[in-house]
Design a protein that fits this description.
Elements (H helix, E strand, L loop, with lengths): L3 E3 L2 E7 L1 H19 L5 E6 L3 H8 L7 E11 L6 E6 L9 E9 L3 H11 L5 E9 L12 E5 L5 E2 L15 E4 L3
Parallel strand pairs: 3-4, 3-6, 6-7, 7-8
Antiparallel strand pairs: 1-2, 2-10, 4-5, 9-10
Helix pairs in contact: 1-2
The structure holds inosinic acid.
Length: 179
């Protein structure tokens, strides 16, 4: 694999496909053990999670459901500040074992909003599974239950992650070339 250019930025190969697949397999085993009799509802956060969702679910030999949601943020009143909404959440969450699927958890702001919205709907449990996690950038105290790969605080693309719309289709993970 060689470098790729997306818009104005250059990216170099960082995590090869085989390493990523092994990491996803490990998460699949953990989730299989934890949710075997619970018929979990996976909620993939679009756009980026489509790849991780597919790769994870094909490795789960358990009864489960999946749906996809999108986070929309808009400015509310001065007192409410930025308000987030989950678009496409039509499933009944109450009493379900929900697993949120993310492509990447960076500062954690997005996952914080999602967890707040879901908690209001009284699920039996909620956990988070993410393809990538940047521990050095993370600013929340919510536990990220299932992490496929921990990466340093650098901008990456590939396997669902984009730079301004491009790069989601790249196999494996590519890291930005600085300078
Ligand atoms: P948060 O900071 O955890 O709320 O992450 C916000 C969003 O920023 C993620 O869902 C991604 O869409 C995007 N993001 C964060 N880091 C990266 C990256 O390295 N590459 C591509 N997108 C990223």
């Amino acid at each position: 694999m060689s470098r790729v250019r997306l818009h104005d930025k250059e990216f170099e190969p960082f995590i090869p496909v085989a390493e990523m697949e092994a990491a996803i397999q490990q998460v699949a085993q953990d989730i299989t053990r934890k949710y075997a009799d619970k018929r979990p509802l996976f909620l993939g956060v679009l756009n980026g999670s489509f790849f991780f969702a597919a790769e994870l679910l094909k490795r789960l030999p358990i009864e489960c459901e999946i749906s996809f949601v999108k986070v929309a943020s808009y400015h509310g009143t001065r007192s409410t500040g930025t308000v987030s909404q989950l678009i496409g959440l039509n499933e009944k969450i109450e009493g379900r074992h929900v697993v949120v699927l993310e492509d990447i958890v960076d500062t954690g702001h997005t996952i914080r909003h999602i967890m707040d919205i879901l908690a209001e709907r009284h699920p039996a449990s909620i956990s988070i599974a993410t393809l990538l996690f940047k521990p050095d950038a993370y600013k929340q105290d919510i536990t990220i239950d299932h992490v496929a790969l921990r990466i340093p605080n650098a901008f990456v693309v590939g396997s669902g992650l984009d730079h301004d719309g491009l790069g989601r289709n790249l196999p494996g993970i590519f890291k930005i070339v600085e300078g």
